[in-house]
Write a structure and sequence with these properties.
Farnesyl Diphosphate Synthase, 1% strand, mainly alpha, two-stranded antiparallel ribbon, globular, 70% helix
C-alpha cells in the first residue's frame, strides 16, 4: 500500500538527510573550517522540495533509489550554493536563512563565497562519479542539463536579471522570464534528472514526449513556486519563512504581488497549478507524487 503524502515526505526528507550527511566532506577533514561551513549551509534545513521532485519523477520511470539519491543531492547542493551566495552583502544582503544565521554571518564573507563555489563543484563531481544512466551519452546530457539550469541561461542569469530590476516596473512577461530562469530552471532540472535516472523499459530511454510533458509540468510549477513565495513574503512572518519577511518590498524588487496585487497573484498561482496538473494527464497513478507535490507547492500556508 502506498504511504500517504505526509508520511512519504517525512520518510524521504529523513532518508535524504542521511544521504547528504554521507556525501558532504567531513568537518574534521582539512580544510576543516570550509568543510564545516559547507555542512552548516546544507544540513538540517529546508523542505527539500527539489529532491522530492527528483524522487517523484523517478517513480514515473522506475528509477533506482541509489541513482535518484545522487541526482537529488546534486540539485540540492546547487540550490544550497545559490542561497549562500544570494544572502551575501553583494547580492540580497540577508542575515537569516532557514531559521538560522546566514552562512556569511555565521562564518565570514570569504568563507561563504568558497562554500558556494565548493558546493557547486561537488554537485558536478557527484554527477560525474556515479552511474546514473546505463548510457554514458545520456549521462553526459544529464550533466549538461544541470549545468545549463545553474548558469547564465538558468538560475545565475535569472539572479542577474533580478539584481538589475531593482526599482524598475517589469511587465508580466518580463517578470515571468526572470523567474523561469531564477527559480524555475532548477525545479525543471530536478524533475528531468529524476526521470532520466530510470527508463520506460530495460535499456529503453524515456521518450521525448514524456520528457516534454514533465518539462511543461516543471515550468508551470516552478513559476507557481515563485508566485506563492512572493505572496508569503508579504503575508507570513520571519519565523514562518525562516528568512527575513518583507525583504522584497523593502528592497523595491518587482514581484507578482507588486504587479498583480495579493489576490491577482493568488489567482495566477491557482491557474499555474491547474496547468501543471494538466501536463501530467495520461501518466496515471505513477505521477501521483508529482501531483501531490504540486498541491503542496501552491497550497503551503496560502
Amino acid at each position: 500500500m502506498r504511504a500517504d503524502f505526509q508520511s512519504w515526505v517525512a520518510s524521504q526528507q529523513s532518508r535524504f538527510e542521511d544521504v547528504l550527511h554521507e556525501l558532504l566532506p567531513r568537518a574534521e577533514v582539512a580544510p576543516q573550517r570550509l568543510h564545516e561551513a559547507m555542512r552548516y549551509a546544507v544540513l538540517d534545513g529546508g523542505k527539500r522540495v527539489r529532491p522530492l521532485l527528483v524522487f517523484a519523477a523517478g517513480e514515473l520511470t522506475g528509477a533506482d533509489a541509489a541513482r535518484l539519491n545522487i541526482a537529488a543531492a546534486a540539485v540540492e547542493l546547487i540550490h544550497a550554493y545559490s542561497l549562500v551566495h544570494d544572502d551575501m552583502p553583494c547580492m540580497d544582503d540577508d542575515v537569516l536563512r532557514r531559521g538560522k544565521p546566514a552562512c556569511h554571518v555565521q562564518y565570514d564573507e570569504a568563507t561563504a563565497l568558497l562554500v558556494g563555489d565548493s558546493l557547486q563543484s561537488l554537485a558536478f563531481h557527484l554527477l560525474a562519479e556515479h552511474r546514473l544512466n546505463d548510457d554514458a551519452t545520456r549521462q553526459l546530457e544529464m550533466i549538461k542539463l544541470l549545468a545549463v539550469a545553474s548558469g547564465s541561461h538558468g538560475m545565475a542569469g535569472g539572479q542577474a536579471i533580478d539584481l538589475a530590476s531593482v526599482g524598475k516596473a517589469l511587465t508580466l512577461p518580463e517578470l515571468e522570464f526572470m523567474h523561469i530562469h531564477k527559480t524555475g530552471a532548477l525545479i525543471r532540472a530536478a524533475i528531468l534528472l529524476g526521470a532520466h535516472c530510470g527508463s520506460v523499459a530495460p535499456a529503453q530511454p524515456v521518450s521525448a514526449e514524456k520528457l516534454a510533458k514533465l518539462d511543461r509540468f516543471g515550468k508551470q510549477i516552478g513559476l507557481a513556486f515563485q508566485v506563492v513565495d512572493d505572496v508569503l513574503d508579504c503575508e507570513a512572518d520571519t519565523a514562518t519563512l525562516g528568512k527575513t519577511a518583507g525583504k522584497d518590498a523593502d528592497n523595491d524588487k518587482p514581484t507578482y504581488v507588486s504587479l498583480l496585487g495579493i489576490q491577482g497573484a493568488r489567482t495566477m498561482a491557482q491557474q499555474l497549478h491547474r496547468e501543471a496538473l494538466e501536463s501530467l494527464a495520461g501518466f496515471g497513478d505513477a505521477a501521483q507524487r508529482l501531483r501531490e507535490l504540486a498541491d503542496f507547492i501552491v497550497l503551503r500556508k496560502f
